[in-house]
Amino acid sequence: MVTEGVAWRLLAFGDPREVVRQERLRYDDPPAGEVLVRVRAAGAGYPDAMMAAGAFPLLGEPPFGLGEEVCGDVVAVGADAPFTVGERIMGITAFLRGWGGYAEYAYVRAGSAVAAPAGFTDEQAAGFPIAYRTAYAGLVERAALRPGEHLVVLGAAGSSGVAAIQLGKALGATVTAVAGSPEKLAFCRSIGADHAVSRHSTDLTKELLAATGGKGADVVYDVVGGDTAAAAAKALGRGGRLAIVGFASGAPVTLDPVDMLLRNYSAVGVLADAHSREGEAVVWARLAELAGQGALTTPVGKVRSFDQVPTMIAEQTNPPAGKIVVRVA
Ligand SMILES: NC(=O)c1ccc[n+]([C@@H]2O[C@H](COP(=O)([O-])OP(=O)(O)OC[C@H]3O[C@@H](n4cnc5c(N)ncnc54)[C@H](OP(=O)(O)O)[C@@H]3O)[C@@H](O)[C@H]2O)c1
Question: Enoyl reductase (ER) domain: which residues (predicted)?
Answer without folding.
Answer: 14-326
